[in-house]
């Protein structure tokens, strides 16, 4: 950029400020035009972004209804609080079960004889072998841990599927070994290799033997399986959480006694899934009205008013609302209107009567399922909606192409700003050259004028003398 620090010195007319004003005046109309264009483009991108988000939000509830499982919510109720029940909706079916629990599963517990002290009384050395559920774990007892507490700590550190502790009975200390899991299959067997050479007597390490033949430990709590009758069928399981008897149902027992469990279809849960779809659809309509609607009060249309892409999306979605699934032309449930989903003509929004839906689901569950979900290779309305929305959001869709085009327009606007900067820089340099030349010329003229005046002033006395 040419220096203009001395511009105007020769004439007092052409200044750097004048150059700035002329450049600014030339720049301003183009800047205003580009600003307005950029603001509108960014507003359109934002509007398309809001539209995309609303469409994406619509996809999730439609996916939930597009499979038969989505139309088959279940609930389970137990008549007895001591019998808890949970269900896996994907696997459960309707049913009623009479359950009588006669025995709870429990973990085995073994206790040693009494010792005078837990930290100083020695208990012998050798190797303890704990067998729990068919898994054997060897534990070395030597001079570093041959006390009651030392044995307990060694067992706990071994990860043998049992826990050990020392109980102060008031008259001595006893080692207690308990299985970590309930059931007969997790019963404990203890065998030893005693350094004193006798593996079954009651001295040294062999006093902890409990191997099914020799019982030098006392079984204070027996290992038991849970026993119950389900609809008269005897069942036994190693835990109090029974999950593999009735498909999709898990029973958790905490007391013995009789209970009744009913598993029924939960029409309320299904209707809530449909309500979510209705809410998301209506939210989409609000977005469309905001960005593409017409405000009669202000006489202004939305930023995307008249946009063909939005009209196409609206037309496609509305078409689904009146679709009759092939093969259901003569059924009791043919369209969304038959299950309580109707359209308000004045707003384009959906209205949902849950009572109508629940009644139809109760009376015609298979038809309602076929209306929404894919059945025997025929797409229901929800499946069709998922496919439609997927296409609308695809990277090569009209919506994506429109957004990409606007992003490219922003790039072009920036290019125009860069070009404007170059033009203004060129204009500034040209004005500086022109003003500098004019300033120099005026300075020369001023200098010549001063010289002429000086000469005329010098001649004046001579003229006066001659006269």
From TrEMBL:
Q: Name one Pfam family in it.
A: FliD_N
Listed GO cellular component terms? bacterial-type flagellum filament cap; bacterial-type flagellum hook; extracellular region
Record domain Flagellar hook-associated protein 2 C-terminal: where: 223-447
Q: What does this protein do?
A: Required for morphogenesis and for the elongation of the flagellar filament by facilitating polymerization of the flagellin monomers at the tip of growing filament. Forms a capping structure, which prevents flagellin subunits (transported through the central channel of the flagellum) from leaking out without polymerization at the distal end.
The protein's organism comes out as Marinobacter zhejiangensis
The cross-references to InterPro entries, in alphabetical order and at most eight, read: FliD (IPR040026), FliD_C (IPR010809), FliD_N (IPR003481)
Q: Which residues cross the membrane?
A: none
List UniProt keywords, sorted A-Z.
Bacterial flagellum, Cell projection, Cilium, Coiled coil, Flagellum, Secreted
**Keyword Cell membrane carried by entry:** no
Subunit and partners: Homopentamer.
Entry protein name: Flagellar hook-associated protein 2
Coiled-coil positions are none
Instruction: Please give a single GO biological process term from the UniProt record.
Output: cell adhesion
């Amino acid at each position: 950029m040419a220096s203009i620090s001395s511009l105007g010195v020769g004439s007092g007319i052409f200044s750097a400020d004048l150059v700035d004003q002329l450049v600014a005046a030339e720049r301003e109309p183009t800047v205003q035009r580009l600003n307005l264009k950029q603001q509108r483009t960014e507003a359109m991108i934002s509007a398309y972004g809001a539209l995309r988000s609303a469409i994406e939000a619509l996809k999730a509830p439609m996916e939930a209804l597009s499979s038969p499982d989505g139309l088959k919510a279940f609930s389970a109720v137990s008549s007895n609080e001591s019998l808890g029940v949970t269900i896996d909706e994907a696997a459960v079916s309707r049913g009623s079960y009479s359950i009588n629990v006669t025995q709870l599963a429990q973990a085995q517990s073994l206790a040693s004889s009494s010792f005078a002290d837990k930290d100083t009384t020695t208990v012998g050395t050798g190797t303890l072998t704990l067998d729990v559920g068919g898994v054997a774990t060897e534990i070395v007892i030597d001079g570093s841990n041959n006390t009651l507490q030392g044995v307990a700590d060694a067992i706990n550190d071994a990860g043998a599927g049992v826990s050990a502790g020392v109980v102060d009975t008031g008259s001595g200390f006893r080692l207690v070994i308990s299985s970590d899991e309930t059931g007969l299959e997790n019963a404990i067997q203890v065998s030893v290799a005693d350094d004193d050479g006798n593996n079954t007597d009651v001295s040294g390490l062999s006093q902890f033997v409990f191997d099914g033949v020799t019982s030098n430990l006392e079984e204070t709590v027996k290992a038991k399986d849970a026993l119950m009758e389900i609809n008269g069928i005897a069942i036994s399981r190693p835990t109090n959480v029974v999950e593999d008897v009735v498909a999709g149902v898990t029973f958790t027992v905490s007391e013995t006694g009789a209970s009744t469990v009913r598993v029924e279809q939960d029409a309320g849960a299904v209707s809530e899934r449909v309500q979510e779809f209705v809410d998301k659809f209506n939210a989409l309509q609000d977005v469309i009205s905001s960005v593409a609607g017409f405000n009669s009060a202000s006489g202004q249309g939305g930023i995307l008013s008249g946009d063909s892409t939005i009209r196409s999306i609206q037309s496609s979605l509305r078409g689904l609302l009146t679709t009759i699934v092939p093969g259901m032309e003569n059924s009791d449930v043919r369209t969304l209107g038959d299950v309580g989903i109707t359209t308000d003509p004045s707003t384009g929004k959906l209205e949902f009567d849950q009572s109508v839906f629940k009644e139809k689901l109760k009376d015609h569950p298979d038809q309602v399922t076929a209306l929404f979900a894919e059945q025997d290779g025929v797409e229901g309305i929800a499946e069709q909606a998922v496919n439609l929305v997927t296409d609308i959001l695809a990277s090569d869709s009209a919506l994506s192409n429109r957004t990409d085009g606007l992003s490219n327009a922003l790039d072009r606007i920036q290019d125009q700003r860069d070009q404007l900067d170059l033009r203004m820089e060129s204009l500034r340099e040209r004005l500086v050259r022109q003003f500098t030349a004019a300033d120099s010329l005026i300075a020369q003229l001023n200098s010549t004028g001063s010289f002429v005046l000086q000469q005329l002033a010098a001649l004046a006395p001579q003229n006066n003398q001659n006269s």
